[in-house]
Design goal:
five-stranded antiparallel sheet; binds 2'-deoxyguanosine-5'-monophosphate; about 20% helix; HIT family, subunit A
Length: about 110
């Protein structure tokens, strides 16, 4: 068992509700949702943060997120990428949060 839970989810060794997957990206429901819709979009390959990911993959990550948002029929949503523990990153495998289904204030608390 690898130490990274998102690597385990990507490999199918840890269960999750997967909404989309292809060779390089997986989208699955967050286990601790902060909104009625809370999906995590991750690269299959282990990159610790957005600072480490190849440019070409950034576009695909967002394209998948847009596709999931469209499939869930949400017009209004927020993308969040916490980077570093001070910013709230707790799982050190890059993930893009897709949050929607409720009113969200700005700026965030
Ligand atoms: P962050 O704080 O940005 O690192 O977000 C990590 C998110 O990962 C948090 O919203 C909860 C979610 N999470 C943690 N462990 C699991 C898990 O085992 N399965 C799923 N589906 N989500 C998880």
């Amino acid at each position: 068992m690898c130490e990274c839970i998102f690597c385990e989810i990507s490999a199918g060794r840890l269960s999750s509700v997967i909404l989309y997957q292809d060779d390089t990206v997986v989208a699955f429901k967050d286990a601790n949702p902060m909104a009625p819709i809370h999906v995590l979009i991750i690269p299959r390959h282990h990159y610790e943060s957005i600072k480490d990911i190849p440019e070409a993959l950034i576009g695909h990550l967002f394209a998948v997120a847009n596709r999931v948002a469209a499939e869930l029929k949400i017009e209004s949503f927020r993308y969040v990428i916490n980077t570093g523990s001070q910013a709230g990153q707790t799982v050190f495998h890059l993930h893009l949060h897709l949050l929607g289904g409720r009113c969200m204030g700005w700026p965030p608390g």
